[in-house]
């Protein structure tokens, strides 16, 4: 079991984080009396533990195009209870009614348009007055009047099961449920729907409802999203608080990097490996010299990983064994950027181009930017001085902004993808082509079927897991100094091998 590194972060206050296990104890202590007081709701087995309900590799979601209504209702009800208690209310004050009881005639009018298993789900979930928002992105279960607004061409196939939190986006939609295939996807706004249609051509973006609910629970479990009644400087919707990163994410990124490092090291002859070192890749003093903010995700990560015994972590990308060179490579950490709303974390060049190739971030035109970093890092660099070292950068974030990912990355490459606007080439997680002439889109999300805006960066742990797969499967070759090839190897993504350079969709 991995040890969690509890990094001190003013935007992740452990006092505000209500542990799931504590809330579960509170809920369990009064559940029996609740069930007896409200026997009319068709409750699933609420005594099943959360871990027994969550989708995992050993306990996957359904693949037979049916709805696991009992599992989904239990996951739903536990989220309702979690948010209720997080707001400081007692679980015994939660008056439990089913969807049909709560909405009465309105709900019964649409009953015949609903699949029978979806009816059972709606009969089993908790709906009540004055509920807090169901989750960070969604207000709650949709009202009967809103459920079928979405599709004119197939009016009874798609249901807006959960509606997007009001004010989060313009033209809000929500979690769309396909009653034919029994799959769902999260479209925050109406403009997101096009990414998912037709369903038959976008199967990777539609998932069992229990898989989506499990992903939301996972974000709670790792502390990326927490719930509290207290005021915080972070983005907050109801009790739900978005964190730029969590300590658990440092742990998981470290574990993913160590897996990658081991995969490479195991394929190098022992006599060619660098000496064993118990020191972290970079010390806090060395990161101070490089002006890396303290605290921040990338500092915690770099001071936690062990120093690899080779030089090349990926094609053309070098490990910063020399802290002086690492500090000299930093373009953004010394820029004086401030915001009245909270700290701004600059991008940090983690693994630089071995050939020290540069990339131009000059806008394509006045309307199209290829610079992936916070806007303030566009404005503070003259337009004629947009050349930066290529390589793997940590994500830049304004901690007070919504839907950010300090645990994310941007791979800046010294060449554009789809340079002439080709209708084939590198693809994002959502299977869409990367933006024409982009230099930082490789391995990124695009549309997010589990929720969130398209611009949020992919997580470092996902990148390292994918690179480890490329090594372990033999797609990337290992030589005496690490991964074979120069940075131009990544051009393979634009030359028919896009599947090797695409990470499957996640949150």
Structure description:
The protein is built from 14 helices and 18 strands. With 507 residues, the protein is α+β, with helices and mostly antiparallel strands. The strands form six sheets. Strands 8-9-11-14-16 form a five-stranded antiparallel β-sheet. The chain has a four-stranded antiparallel β-sheet with strand order 1-2-3-4, with no helix packed on it. Helix 1 packs across helix 3. Residues 1-22 and 24-41 have low confidence and may be disordered.
Summarize the structure.
The protein is of the alpha+beta class.
Report the biggest beta sheet as strand number plus sense, adding barrel if it closes: 5 strands, antiparallel
Q: Can you tell me the overall shape?
A: globular
Give the overall pLDDT as a whole number.
90
Strand order of the largest sheet: 8-9-11-14-16
- Low-pLDDT segments: 1-22, 24-41
What portion of the residues fall into strands of 2 or more residues? Answer: 5-15%
Q: Give the distance, in angstroms, between the N- and C-terminal Cα atoms.
A: 23 Å
What Rg do the Cα atoms give?
Answer: 24 Å
Question: How many beta-strand runs?
Answer: 18
Number of domains: 2
Count of individual helical segments: 14
- The helix/strand class is alpha+beta
Report helical residue fraction: 25-40%
